[in-house]
Amino acid sequence: MGPDAFEEMKSFTEELPQARALGLKVEHVEPGVAVLSMPWSAELVGDPETGVIHGGAVSTLMDTCCGGAVITHPDMLEATTATLDLRIDYMRPAQPGRTIFARAECYHVTRTVAFVRAQAWTEGDGDRPVAAATGAFTASGRRGAGQ
Amino acid sequence: MSPEPMQVVKERRDAALKALEARIPYMRFIGATMERRGDELTGLLNYAPHLIGNPQGPALHGGVTSAFLEVTALIELAWGPLWQQIETGEVTVEALRDPGFRLRMPKTIDFTTDFLRPGLPRDAYARARVNRSGRRYASVHVEAWQDNRSRLFAQATGHFLMPQDE
Fold first, then answer.
1. Given the DSSP bridges, would you call strands A33-38 and B107-115 parallel, antiparallel or unpaired?
2. What is the pLDDT of residues B144-159, one digit of tens each?
3. Fewest C-beta in 10 Å: which of A118, B32, B130, B132?
4. How many CB pairs under 8 A join A and B?
């Protein structure tokens, strides 16, 4: 994937209205892999006593990150996609005040479906994931898929 | 003793629901509120342009849809025990309005969302059903629709850890 494709994917993703509202940034992209970040914000808190970001905001980070991994997969370059399902496991609370990162990998693509897994962690604490996700995405209009 | 005026009962119930919503500041970020008819709750996602995830369509962001279903499930779960305490008078409006009132919320263990069709750029509704609620774990199913209750655009199942007595 060339620098142009990276820039194109980065601006497409960061310009999505909800991605802008959350301040999502594309940190890294390679074929079938995306790394995104979401800064901590008081608006996103799920529990005022702890300041921990709500799982719902993590869902959007994960869904966007997984979608990014799907659209950069080499088999998906001419295809369009949408989330079929997304499961999120919440392993521990994200640390308040810190940026959350997510890395998604599109690990298999069939003629019609792309499979993705992802992990999220807080800044400076990459060894202890706060959440994991697995998802299935549609793969429509794939070249040679004969649908 | 004459029965309590209905207005007082309603006020207490509505204050309880407001207290629950206040426990999740993120609900305001996506514009989610809860509506109540008796003990039945319906989540309401008030449409705003920043909720869009796919400009082609346009469609609601899947993450927002999932988040809306998750907060609806959380409020429904917390509402059950709180409703009991309100009806017996164990919890008062004054207590609920006190910023120091500590409401212990369930925690999400896992949450799986099925996206059945794109979310249209308009209001959405959701209703949760607690399928099992044990001392420690609960399982909740949530359905979301827009114009037509029988045409769901998303559904979800989640497991939750219930608050434990200290």
1. unpaired
2. 999 999 999 999 999 9
3. B132
4. 124
Give the residue from chain B lying closest to A61, CA to CA.
Answer: B63
Range of the domain at B21: 6-161
| Cβ–Cβ gap B67/A84 under 8 Å | no
Flag whether residue A5 sits within 8 Å of chain B, measured between CB atoms.
no
pLDDT at position A147: 44
The answer to whether the CB atoms of B54 and A82 lie below 8 A apart is yes
Q: What is the interface pTM, i.e. ipTM, of the complex?
A: 0.94
Q: Is the per-residue pLDDT at B143 higher than 90?
A: yes
Query: Read out DSSP for chain A?
Result: --HHHHHHHHHHHHTSHHHHHHT-EEEEEETTEEEEEE---GGGEEETTTTEEPHHHHHHHHHHHHHHHHHTSGGGTT-B--EEEEEEEE-SPPPTTS-EEEEEEEEEE-SSEEEEEEEEEETT-TTS-SEEEEEEEE-BS-TT---
Is the residue at B72 inside a domain? yes
Residues of B within 8 A of A85 (CB-CB) are 112-115
A145 at the B interface (CB within 8 A)?
no
Give tens-digit pLDDT for B28-87.
999 999 999 988 999 999 999 999 998 888 999 999 999 999 999 999 999 988 888 888
Give A58-74 pLDDT, tens digit per residue: 999 999 999 999 999 99
- Map out the domains of chain A with their CATH numbers: 3-138 (3.10.129.10)
Scan for tokens 């008030």, then name that residue: B46
More confident of the two residues A111 and B6:
A111
Q: B166 in a domain, yes or no? A: no
Determine, yes or no, domain membership for B97: yes
Residues of A in contact with B64 (CB under 8 A): 18, 56, 60
> Which chain B residues touch A91 with a CB distance below 8 Å?
none
Chain B residues interacting with chain A (CB cutoff of 8 angstroms):
22-26, 28-30, 49-55, 61-64, 66-68, 70-71, 102, 105, 107-115, 118
